[in-house]
Amino acid sequence: MRKPIVAGNWKMNKSVAEAVQLVVTMKGELLQFGGVERVLCPPFMAVPDVARLLAGSGLRVGAQDMYWKESGAYTGEVSPLMVSEFCQYVIIGHSERREYFGETDESVRQKIVSALAHGLIPIVCVGETLALRQKDLTERWISGQVRAALQGFSAEQVAGMVIAYEPIWAIGTGLAATAAEAERVCGQVVRAALAELYGQSTAALVRVQYGGSISASNAAELMIQPNVDGGLVGGASLKAADFVAIVRAAAEAKA
Predict the structure, then answer these.
(1) How many folded domains does the chain comprise?
(2) CA–CA separation, 214 and 6 (whole Å)
(3) CATH number reported for the structural domain that contains residue 15 in this entry
(4) I need a surface site. Which of 167, 195, 214, 222 has the fewest CB within 10 A?
């Protein structure tokens, strides 16, 4: 069985002090759910403090992004060496990075190469806009993103990655995909593309998350879907009770 993974993407929220307080508030409850990989992805400024709080606990730390170069004259960027000192995971290719900061399929692939070279597990994001969805282009777009991101990797490398399907029209809007639609895209589009590239056995090993307005109220119906292996959680991860409830839903659904 694939171990479910629930990652909280805090985005550009929480001061260092607030981040520490949030971790302190929910750490004890999160420790109950050993059957779920639990990952916290705070802003870069808070990563070292959060990592120290979680050290040895089994809870993991993720970065929200990174550059692919190890060092150099890249003002404002964070290198994989800096990330790997504190983190086990890194989110790559989030739609907000693509939309606001000009990331492309090629830069996403380069970041994946660098993440793997530095022992980081990439959470690779894919997702379609509302316009693409209305034109019935979801399958073509998502499949294309998966293929572009994973070009040139071995089956073993791909098996260890996490793919996060986040419909852009659902991020931060309160409009989550239905459980049936999340299952369809995660299974019949994302996992199907993986199977075409690397075979069914490898596709069966890759964890595919759903993201996009996951909440405590809809988590159970999403997590029960056989091809939804957890969630990449945005706003709800900023509230301790809500994030714990989502992790609990994943644990119960996949038990």
Answers:
(1) 1
(2) 11
(3) 3.20.20.70
(4) 195
Show the tokens assigned to 148.
């572009």
Distance CA 143, CA 126 (A): 9
Give tens-digit pLDDT for 159-181: 999 999 999 988 878 877 899 99
Q: What is the pLDDT of residues 81-133, one digit of tens each?
A: 999 999 999 999 999 999 999 999 999 999 999 999 999 999 999 999 989 99
Q: HSE, CB side, 13 Å, CA atoms: give it for residue 196.
A: 13
Active-site option among 37, 94, 96, 118: 94
CA-CA distance, 202 to 127, in Å (whole number)?
Answer: 22
Q: What is the maximal distance between C-alpha atoms in the chain?
A: 48
Q: What is the dihedral of CA 37, 104, 73, 11, to 10 degrees?
A: -40
Q: Pairing state of beta strands 5-9 and 37-41?
A: parallel
C-alpha distance from residue 46 to each of 37, 57, 124, 192, 226 (Å) = 20, 18, 22, 37, 34
- Give the phi and the psi of residue 27 in degrees, each rounded to 5: -55, -50
Nearest to 142 by CA among 167, 123, 161, 162: 167
Contact assessment for residue 209 and residue 185, using Cβ atoms and an 8 Å cutoff: no
How far are the Cα atoms of 91, 95, 198, 206 from residue 138, in angstroms, in the given order?
22, 15, 21, 20
| Active-site annotation holder among 37, 128, 166, 183 | 166
**Catalytic site residue 166?**
yes
The position carrying tokens 């931060």 is: 172
DSSP 8-state secondary structure symbol assigned to residue 128: -
Domain holding 197, by residue range, is 5-254
Phi/psi at 33 (5° precision): -110, 70
Per the annotation, the verdict on 94 as an active-site residue is yes
